[in-house]
């Protein structure tokens, strides 16, 4: 774990609960219910975006089931540190994304995948600002994108496969995911609003949804 200059293990649950309560119990991350095929597609893109190029160190806010962090540590051998408000997930640092107990520019890359939608949108920019503050070079996030879409898949002999996703440029009311307070494409939360906020805290290098899982929208920012 890369040092943060604070005694992270002495943070208390009471302090965390004053900001935001944890959204999911540890049982939420059981394989049978949590790790559907599309999520493994997202793991691929989380890792691919993070390792392009290979970072000197990585901070992830939101432990989840630990797949991303274990791959970085055990396979890619990249120094990795986790932050979460849920102590039963055993993060390296107990803390909230809205007030990270970490010094400026501590980590090469700061990541947050499928977490921010669990918080009120009013703190979205504050969260991005905190990620940018502790990152030296790059910020990577993903959030749900509930917009409808067209999907094209064509494979002809002797030619590479052609895969394309076209998200429709309008919002619509759907049933939000478990514990979600907002999603891209839900009324009041258009993609342009998210892009505008992100653009205030870095240069948007990549902005995409995977063909195999168009529900997860990825953004890669460079400071």
The gist of it:
The chain has six helices and nine strands.
Describe this structure in words.
The chain is of the alpha/beta class and 223 residues long. Helix content is 23%, strand content 24%. It has six helices and nine strands, in the order H-H-H-E-H-E-E-E-H-E-E-E-H-E-E. The relative contact order is 0.16. The model is unreliable at 1-19 (pLDDT under 50).
Question: How is the topology of this model organized?
Answer:
Blueprint: H1 13-17, H2 31-34, H3 37-50, E1 58-61, H4 67-75, E2 80-84, E3 93-94, E4 107-113, H5 124-134, E5 135-144, E6 149-154, E7 162-167, H6 191-199, E8 203-208, E9 216-222
Parallel strand pairs: 1-2, 1-4, 2-3, 4-5
Antiparallel strand pairs: 5-9, 6-7, 8-9
Question: What descriptors fit this protein?
Answer:
223 residues; 6 helices; 7-stranded mixed sheet; globular; alpha/beta; disordered N terminus
The main β sheet shows up as:
7 strands, mixed
Helix content class: 10-25%
Whole-angstrom Rg: 17 Å
Strands ordered across the widest β-sheet: 3-2-1-4-5-9-8
Total number of helices = 6
- Ends apart, CA distance between termini: 23 Å
Averaged pLDDT, please? 88
**Number of separate strands:** 9
- The low-pLDDT segments are 1-19
């Amino acid at each position: 774990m890369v040092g943060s200059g604070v005694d992270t293990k002495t943070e208390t649950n009471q302090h965390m609960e004053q900001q935001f309560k944890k959204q999911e119990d540890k049982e939420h991350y059981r394989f049978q219910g949590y790790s559907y095929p599309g999520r493994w597609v997202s793991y691929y893109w989380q890792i691919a975006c993070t390792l392009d190029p290979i970072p000197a160190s990585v901070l992830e806010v939101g432990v989840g089931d630990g797949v991303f962090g274990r791959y970085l540590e055990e396979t890619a051998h990249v120094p990795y540190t986790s932050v979460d408000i849920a102590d039963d997930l055993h993060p390296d640092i107990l803390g909230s994304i809205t007030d990270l107990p970490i010094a400026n520019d501590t980590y090469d890359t700061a990541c947050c995948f499928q977490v921010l939608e669990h918080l009120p949108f009013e703190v979205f920019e504050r969260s991005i600002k905190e990620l940018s503050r502790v990152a030296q070079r790059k910020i990577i996030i993903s959030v749900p994108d509930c917009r409808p879409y067209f999907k094209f898949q064509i494979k002809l002999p002797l030619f590479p496969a052609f895969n394309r996703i076209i998200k429709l440029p309008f919002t619509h009311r759907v049933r939000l995911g478990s514990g979600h307070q907002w999603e891209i494409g839900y009324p009041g939360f258009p993609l342009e609003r998210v892009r505008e906020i992100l653009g205030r805290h870095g240069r948007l290098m990549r902005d995409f949804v995977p063909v195999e899982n168009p529900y997860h929208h990825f953004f890669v920012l460079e400071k």
